[in-house]
Amino acid sequence: MRTAGQPQARFELRLVAGHGAAPLARARRGAAEGPAARQWGYHILAVVVHEEVPTQGALAARLAIDRSVLTYVIDDLANAGLIERRPDPQDRRARRVVATERGRQTLAEAERRVAHAEDHVLGGLPEEQRRVFRDLAARAAEAIHAAAPATDPCVAVQSVLPPADQAS
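^ that's the sequence the OP posted. Answer follows.
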C-alpha cells in the first residue's frame, strides 16, 4: 500500500531521477553509516516508519526486493539497532518489522539530508512544478514496478541513462 506524502515522494524522486539526482543519493548515503547507508536500508526504514507496520513478506513485495535478500538486509538493520522483528499478533508465523528509536532518528537525519539535496536539485522550480515532478516520478516508479515487479527501479533507471559525466 502506498501512502501520499513527502517521504514517499522523495523516495520516488530518487528512483526516477537516476544520475541526475546524484546529490540525493549522496545525501542518503551520507546520512548514516553502515546498513542504513546501503541500497535498501533507507527505503526499508522509510516504509517501516511512515507506513503501516509491514510483515517481512509485505515489505519485500512493497519494495520489490527478493525475500532472501531482504532477510539479510533486515538482519543487518537489526544488528545495527535500527529495526526489530516482532511477532504478528494475528499470525504467529509472520514477523512485523518495526523501527527502533535509533532507526527513527537515523531516518530523520537521512530525510533532512535528502530534503536539502532535493531543494538543491529542484531549487529552480516553483512549488507547483515540484509537485508535478514528484507526481510524475511516482507514476514512473510504479510503472517500472508494474512492468517488472522483480526489477529494482533504481537499477532500471540507471540502465537506460548515460553515466553522469556523459550527460548533457
